[in-house]
């Protein structure tokens, strides 16, 4: 049943699909459209119908129902892009056979080591085959593992018509990593009662809560004067920006928070004496605290301007909201996934996502969409890895969900 799973995944990660929020396009990079067309051809070859690639790079397809029962139409969704946090160009993944619990040297020359002392979760996978990077690129398990798992499950359903199922819709989306994965998703065309994204992390993850998210761009204008004659004249925008950054709560950052704790995260800084720009992301699961965080940023900008009139300005932009409020009225869709995991021997780990997912925006667009594990760890960087048995279990969960839904009238 899993014979093509790994080869599929290794083929998928060879496509360069890094997204780029600066282009203003959808998809944001041409490699995603190339990959989209490849996946569409594969869906057709498997036997799906109504396969399409939209002008924005969204891939959709249908596996028709093979039962006379009235069965809900469900969907499975994964994203094609990889994070711009690190290059995904020319990856050289390798399989560590029967991992023995020791350090995994990714790049001997650069002394890049995937070590259980730093990543203790590795020890959960002793004895398993694990796919790792060569230390120079990310892997792309986020979310090409999810795509490979969905594709493998669909192929098994087509090859085994005795497995009864209702109508199944599938979609592969661009630009999830830059928060635009659902921006041009045609929910009406997709026409599913609900769906699941295969975009979670380690085995067992099941999520229907995520951050509320906003981006803040704070700009500081300075005044440049020859430093030898600058007293009471120069205003160094970089120094003012540094002052602002120090005014935010120092322990409310990603490296100091976990669980339901929100944060401010400085993602980039660029500047000179005359102009400096700080870019932040703001995150919190609680909507009231989220709104307070945005107000705090504006408050601190006002404080800067009280000391340096007209120096600072901020642009705040909401990105997505916590899908919990849209999922709770239809919690049976989470229960189905939770029971499916248990029935295939996976212990469910129901938790809140410390991030976002296409499912958040889709839920607010009318398509309830919890998130299921794809199996990977350490996304967005050189230490990313995915245990092969976790990918296999994700396939099992998809098939079990399909089976369970087929029994729902």
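Sequence proposed for the structure above (409 residues):
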């Amino acid at each position: 049943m899993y014979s093509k799973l790994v080869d599929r995944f290794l083929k998928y990660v060879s496509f360069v699909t890094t997204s780029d929020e600066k282009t203003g396009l959808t998809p944001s990079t041409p490699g995603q459209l190339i990959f989209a067309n490849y996946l569409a051809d594969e869906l057709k070859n498997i036997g799906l119908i109504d396969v399409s690639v939209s002008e924005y790079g969204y891939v959709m397809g249908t596996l028709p129902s093979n039962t006379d029962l009235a069965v809900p139409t469900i969907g499975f969704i994964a994203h094609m892009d990889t994070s711009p946090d690190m290059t995904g160009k020319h990856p050289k993944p390798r399989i560590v056979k029967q991992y023995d619990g020791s350090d995994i040297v990714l790049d001997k020359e650069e002394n890049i080591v995937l070590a259980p002392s730093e990543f203790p979760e590795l020890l959960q996978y002793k004895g398993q085959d694990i796919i790792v990077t060569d230390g120079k690129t990310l892997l792309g398990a986020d979310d090409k593992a999810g795509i490979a798992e969905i594709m493998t499950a669909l192929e098994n359903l087509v090859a085994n018509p005795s497995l009864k199922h209702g109508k199944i819709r599938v979609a592969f989306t661009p630009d999830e990593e830059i928060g635009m994965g659902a921006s041009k998703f045609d929910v009406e065309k997709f026409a599913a009662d609900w769906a699941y994204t295969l975009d979670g992390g380690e085995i067992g993850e099941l999520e229907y809560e995520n951050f509320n998210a906003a981006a803040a761009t704070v700009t500081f204008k300075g005044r440049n004067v020859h430093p030898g004659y600058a007293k009471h004249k120069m205003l160094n925008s970089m120094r003012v920006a540094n002052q602002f950054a120090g005014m935010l709560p120092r322990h409310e950052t990603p490296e100091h928070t976990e669980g339901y704790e929100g944060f401010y995260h400085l993602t980039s800084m660029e500047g000179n004496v005359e102009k400096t720009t700080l870019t932040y992301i703001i995150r919190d699961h609680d909507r009231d605290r989220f709104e307070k965080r945005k107000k705090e940023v504006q408050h601190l900008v006002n404080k800067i301007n009280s000391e340096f009139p007209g120096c600072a300005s901020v642009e705040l932009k909401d990105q997505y909201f916590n899908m919990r409020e849209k999922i709770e009225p239809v919690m049976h869709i989470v229960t189905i996934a939770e029971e499916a995991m248990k029935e295939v021997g996976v212990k469910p780990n129901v938790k809140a996502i410390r991030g976002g997912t296409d499912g958040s925006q889709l839920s607010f667009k009318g398509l309830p969409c919890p998130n299921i594990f794809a199996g990977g760890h350490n996304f967005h960087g050189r230490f990313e890895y995915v245990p092969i048995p976790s990918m296999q279990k994700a396939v099992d969960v998809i098939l079990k969900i399909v089976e369970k839904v087929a029994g729902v009238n």
